[in-house]
UniProtKB/TrEMBL annotation:
NCBIfam families: L-threonylcarbamoyladenylate synthase. It comes from the Bacteria. Residues 14-201 form the YrdC-like domain. It comes from Chryseobacterium arachidis. GO terms for molecular function: double-stranded RNA binding. This is tRNA threonylcarbamoyl adenosine modification protein, Sua5/YciO/YrdC/YwlC family. InterPro entries: DHBP_synth_RibB-like_a/b_dom, Sua5-like_dom, SUA5_domain.
Amino acid sequence: MAKILKIYPENPQENLINEVIKTLNNGGLIIYPSDTVYALGCNIFDIKAMEKLAQLKKIKLEKAQFSIICNDLSHLSDFTRPIDTSTFRFLKSHLPGPFTFILEANKSLPLAYKGNKTIGIRVPDHPIPQLIVEKLGHPIASTSIKDDDEVLEYSTDPELIAEKYDHLVDIVIDSGYGDNMASTIVDLTSGEPEIIRQGKGII
């Protein structure tokens, strides 16, 4: 059964964040809030956790396009090819924020991402994922929680999310109602921003 942790953005309790970190380090899956929708996350360096995440999404890991959640832009060089000054300035002016930026990947990607030519980077404008990444010491893999309802695309109620994923994840972070609009996906691989999916972020 998933453990529900009530962690609020205004005052995230350190002991609860530490519990999340311990779970991630032990290969667990978490559901966490962001500046857009609730999302599933795991340790990017734990291949078994990444496989569990792919299974949950009913896709093969090698075909998965899980974005990488960072707490700032300092991790960029770990995963992406060198980017020019204008692209970096563009990223800096939009992050933290409700965007996923597609960038060219380098050859030092974690095992689960090997062979990927591009990578999606997110820096959510929300203290909880930022704190998790900061305390963990490296980014996490992430994918949005879709809703099975034909009308609702994303689940917003953490209690209903916890009910649905009760036996599938280890921790659900309840941070109040989430948004129902996902991030805007922007492809920066050509040097010019190209919107792949219009979401919450406006460019």
